[in-house]
């Protein structure tokens, strides 16, 4: 395997070679540039307007206005250009005689005339294929009616966007940027102006992989007063039952909210304010295997109400400080609470606790025009978050592995305080054929966390080998007169423990009969810990338009952080866009794109926090497997007794040689414009991640001898960077905008992902042999299909379909017990060589030997595959307008007949919109990840509906299989 240093060195050589080759291709003609500001008729700047330039050959260049309404397009050959501008709520603009001279930098300001906002819906035509780096056809841009297909709730919206982004290249999943910042809760849908996914993936401006990047731009203020108010409602009487719950628990969802925008100071300042209140009487579904009063093993299923409350308030101000400076300020307040948290799946009612959280977010953005060629942008974000959890920590917890969890919640009074800040500064300037951007980001976080978790102690019961018992709970003897051995489940071991304790058997006898706890753990000491972390990222990026049909993008990023020894991370990036067949009569129909780049993943401050909390001094933690302690069940051993046994404490550490994980990603794409306004993009992506994080017990008992390398120290759970990840993806993206009545986006992804770790929390089966860990990654979802869009039907009805279809994700199979003394339950079985052998378990996934001997090959990691997922969401909207538009009123005032279409709802200044949103319209059952513990009575079965990235809302699947929500919106 090549080292990371060799990979970076070869990358630099490749980068230098491309630059030298590109210089030989540079045309001698000096290019010009066009820049300016887009405003409305009152002088207020328009943010996010699209400015398009078309030359005499039909070649297209475009840009979007930034926070101060400025745009800049460089690398323009001399000649006459047609300039067009488009912005939601404004009439289209076009000028056909804008001249660019050689080496000249022309300033061209654009003024747009406002139309009645919120009433006239314009679906902009999809950008034609071009060689612009930010206009890749593989990107997904949602605006206007396309946003109506998405859920209103921010948590459900995040899950829907993850599904839309797909299984991103690399091991870390999608990352969200809100107005250019990382972190913070997503705004509600009505506060969003635009969403961009996978745009310009190799830009050096971003630290994370471009494929899977979700950028959310919030709505600014307007020069006239506009607003809306909404009320949404859903009830269990409208929904179908959850297939994993025997009872139907009460459910109700109530949403009220709205927004208002308008001028604050004429031609100088505007405002936007949004607020929402969401009340969910949600459900959690318990699906476990328990013991009844007669100690009979029985399934247990119950749906329980878990009330959730969310409050959000978000005002925004936009100021024109001067002719060259603008300032945007946004404040966001959110508060949420949840009752009966901790309940669901295996966790019983006694595990309930309550949570409360409060977030304050301040975002400031200042834009400055430095010259006719340069624009500077400065951003600052501050997040002040507080989290509280309160539960019962007095009662001892009982963990019967993958059967049920009972006893106290072991949360106590937990508290988390986070203060995060980000400072960005970017400068963009145009120089001939070059559009360059340089800047940096400085980011910091301070955590104070108080967590008395497991201060009451937890007894764990696991399955394994035990004597076979008859119906009278007597040992069954074999032909040789010895007890027959069998494999028992975790709940059977727990049953035997309680049964034989009631019979007042001696602890040694109970263990001989297959009872007794497997492990006991307890924590104590100082519950509070803290961590401070700072990271920096600086970059330079150049989009170099060598020719009319060829653009080369070159970038270099530098990153560093504290709390680890690795401080110097260089991330070069290179990409190109080439149109091999230019058309003299119009824009190109075919563009080939490619890219290569290195992307680093920061070591999380949460891992630093854990290593400081469990350092052996601040907070003590005991993990016991000695029968003399375990036989005290259900009593909790005293601290003095644990100390008397001189039990070493588990310690969390960050490996001294830990390196920052980085991904080397390559991509090649073919974009083609087809008849009837179809645009198709086919992309092949390859990602290879080195130094991927994992956890490993570096002082686990040695195989064979059982001795520890460090004899007088207990378990040392270290964060290491010894993993590897490899991924291949084929992505087909197509979009069509036939007219304002039809807009469709479809994405298909063929994916293969393999590696030897699933991230920092995952442990290997054998702490001293990692060779058997390479296998399928949890991200190895082979097929995924997404379809969404907007359809305008007759009578003013709009349909917003959203379809997700994916194949099953892999999951791991374990034996469900600690066979090597490392205090973890990660051991995997071997394939059975003899079906008649003792303890062999035959399943639909194969026949497994849960007692492999030395040298016997274990089954691969993530060997089994779970069920697929299929969901059809559908939104239906109808707007009823009333009132007279300004145009109609003026016409009537002149005594003329009104236009024939003056009664159209879209032209009315006031309106009521009636909407119905159906999630999982066809009531398709989507099981969650199956239980992979061979000693669980539910092995191979799912005990909950699918939640997370491919279902829309973590609460909806628990509540019902199909959910319908009605909404009424008033706007003006």
Number of domains: 3
What is the percentage of strand-forming residues?
over 45%
CATH homology superfamily of the largest domain: TonB-dependent receptor, beta-barrel domain
pLDDT < 50 stretches: 14-29, 116-126, 886-903, 948-957
Largest sheet: 22 strands, antiparallel, barrel
CATH class call of the largest domain: Mainly Beta
Morphology call: elongated
Q: Which percent bin holds the helix content?
A: under 10%
Q: Based on helices, strands and strand pairing, what is the structural class?
A: mainly beta
CATH-defined topology of the largest domain: Maltoporin, Chain A
**What gap, in angstroms, lies between the N and C termini?**
63 Å
Q: Radius of gyration, rounded?
A: 31 Å
Number of strands: 49
How many helices does DSSP assign?
Answer: 9
Kindly report the average pLDDT value: 84
CATH architecture annotation name of the largest domain: Beta Barrel
Give structural attributes.
972 residues, Maltoporin, Chain A, 22-stranded antiparallel barrel, 5-stranded mixed sheet, elongated
Describe the protein:
By secondary structure, this protein is mainly beta. It has three domains: 140-218, no CATH class; 226-458 and 526-876 and 917-971, TonB-dependent receptor, beta-barrel domain (Maltoporin, Chain A); 464-517, no CATH class. The strands form eight sheets. The protein has a 22-stranded antiparallel beta barrel. Strands 9-12-13-10-11 form a five-stranded mixed sheet, with helices on one face. The longest helix is centred in the first third of the chain and has 22 residues, at 4-25. The chain starts with a helix and ends with a strand.
């Amino acid at each position: 395997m090549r080292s990371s240093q060799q990979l970076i060195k070869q990358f630099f050589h490749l980068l230098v070679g491309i630059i030298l080759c590109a210089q030989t291709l540079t045309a001698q003609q000096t290019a010009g540039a066009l820049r300016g500001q887009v405003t409305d008729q009152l002088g207020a700047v328009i943010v996010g307007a699209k400015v398009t330039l078309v030359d005499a050959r039909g070649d297209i260049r475009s840009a979007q206005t930034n926070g101060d309404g400025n745009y800049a397009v460089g690398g323009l050959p001399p000649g006459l250009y047609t300039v067009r501008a488009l912005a939601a709520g404004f009439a289209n603009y076009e000028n056909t005689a804008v001249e660019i001279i050689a080496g000249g930098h022309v300033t061209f300001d654009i003024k747009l005339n406002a139309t009645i906002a919120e009433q006239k819906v314009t679906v902009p035509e999809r950008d034609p294929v071009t060689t612009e780096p930010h206009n890749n056809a593989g990107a997904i841009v949602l605006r206007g009616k396309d946003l109506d297909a998405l859920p209103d709730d921010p948590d459900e919206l995040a899950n829907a966007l993850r599904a839309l982004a797909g299984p991103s290249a690399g091991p870390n999943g999608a990352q969200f940027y809100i107005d250019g910042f990382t972190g913070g809760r997503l705004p509600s849908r009505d506060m969003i102006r635009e969403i961009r996914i996978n745009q310009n993936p190799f830009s050096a401006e971003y630290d994370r992989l471009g494929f899977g990047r979700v950028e959310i731009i919030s709505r600014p203020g307007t020069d006239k007063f506009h607003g809306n108010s909404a009320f949404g409602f859903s009830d269990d009487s409208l929904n179908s039952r959850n297939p994993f719950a025997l009872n139907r628990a009460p459910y109700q969802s109530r949403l009220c909210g709205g927004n208002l925008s308008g001028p604050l100071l004429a031609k100088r300042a505007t405002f936007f304010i949004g607020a929402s209140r969401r009340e969910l009487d949600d459900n959690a579904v318990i699906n476990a295997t328990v013991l009844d009063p007669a100690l009979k093993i029985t399934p247990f299923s119950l749906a329980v109400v878990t009330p959730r409350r969310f409050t959000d308030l978000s005002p925004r101000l936009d100021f024109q400080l001067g002719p060259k400076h603008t300032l945007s300020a946004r404040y966001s307040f959110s508060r949420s609470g949840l009752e009966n948290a901790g309940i669901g799946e295996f966790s019983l009612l006694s595990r309930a606790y309550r949570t409360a959280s409060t977030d304050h977010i301040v975002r400031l953005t200042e834009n400055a025009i430095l010259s006719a060629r340069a624009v500077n942008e400065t951003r600052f974000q501050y997040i002040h978050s507080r989290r509280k959890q309160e539960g019962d920590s007095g009662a001892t917890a009982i963990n019967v592995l993958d059967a049920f969890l009972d006893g106290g919640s072991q949360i106590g009074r937990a508290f988390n305080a986070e203060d995060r800040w980000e400072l960005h500064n970017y400068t963009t300037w145009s120089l001939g054929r070059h559009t360059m951007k340089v800047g940096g980001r400085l980011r910091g976080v301070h955590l104070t966390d108080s967590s008395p978790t497991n201060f009451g102690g937890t007894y764990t019961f696991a399955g394994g080998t035990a004597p076979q018992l008859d119906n009278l709970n007597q040992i069954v003897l074999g032909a040789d007169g010895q007890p027959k051995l069998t494999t028992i489940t975790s709940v059977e071991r727990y049953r035997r423990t309680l049964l034989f304790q009631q019979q007042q058997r001696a602890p040694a006898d109970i263990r001989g009969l297959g009872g007794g706890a497997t492990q006991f753990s307890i924590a104590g000491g100082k519950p509070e810990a803290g961590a401070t972390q700072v990271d920096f990222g600086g970059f330079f990026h150049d989009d170099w338009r060598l020719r009319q049909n060829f653009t080369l993008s070159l970038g270099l990023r530098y990153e560093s952080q504290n709390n680890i020894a690795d401080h110097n991370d260089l991330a070069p990036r290179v990409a190109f866009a080439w149109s091999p067949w230019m058309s003299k009569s119009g824009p190109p129909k075919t563009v080939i794109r490619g890219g290569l780049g290195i992307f680093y993943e920061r070591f999380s401050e949460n891992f630093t926090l854990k290593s400081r909390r469990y350092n052996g001094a601040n907070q003590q933690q005991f993990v016991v497997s000695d029968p003399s302690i375990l036989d005290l069940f259900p009593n909790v051993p005293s601290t003095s007794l644990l100390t008397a046994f001189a039990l070493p404490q588990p310690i969390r550490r960050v490996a001294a040689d830990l390196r920052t994980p980085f991904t080397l990603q390559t991509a090649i794409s073919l974009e083609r414009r087809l008849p009837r306004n179809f645009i198709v993009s086919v992309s092949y992506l390859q990602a290879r991640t080195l130094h991927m994080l994992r956890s490993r017990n570096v002082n686990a008992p040695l195989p064979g001898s059982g001795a520890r390398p460090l004899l007088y120290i207990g378990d040392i759970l270290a964060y290491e960077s010894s993993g590897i990840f490899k991924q291949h993806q084929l992505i087909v993206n197509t979009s069509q905008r036939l007219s304002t009545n039809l807009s469709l986006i479809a994405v298909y992804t063929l994916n293969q992902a393999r590696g030897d770790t699933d991230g920092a929390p995952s442990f290997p089966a054998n702490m001293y042999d990692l060779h058997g860990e390479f296998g399928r990654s949890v991200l190895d979802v082979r097929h995924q299909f997404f379809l969404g869009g907007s359809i305008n039907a007759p009578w003013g009805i709009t349909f917003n379909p959203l379809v997700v279809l994916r194949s099953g994700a892999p999951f791991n199979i374990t034996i469900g017990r600690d066979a090597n003394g490392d205090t973890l339950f990660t051991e995997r079985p071997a394939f059975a060589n003899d079906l008649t052998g003792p303890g062999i378990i035959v399943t639909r996934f194969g026949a497994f030997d849960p007692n492999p001997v030395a040298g016997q090959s274990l089954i691969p990691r993530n060997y089994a595959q779970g069920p697929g997922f299929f969901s059809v969401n559908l939104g239906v909207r109808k707007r009823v307008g009333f009132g007279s538009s300004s145009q109609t009123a003026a016409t009537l005032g002149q005594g003329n007949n009104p236009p024939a279409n003056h009664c159209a709802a879209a032209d009315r200044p006031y309106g009521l919109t009636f909407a119905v949103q159906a999630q999982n319209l066809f009531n398709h059952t989507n099981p969650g990840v199956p239980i992979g513990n061979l000693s669980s009575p539910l092995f191979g079965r799912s005990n909950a509906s699918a939640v997370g990235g491919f279902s829309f809302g973590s609460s909806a699947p628990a509540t019902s299989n199909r959910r319908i929500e009605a909404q009424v919106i008033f706007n003006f």
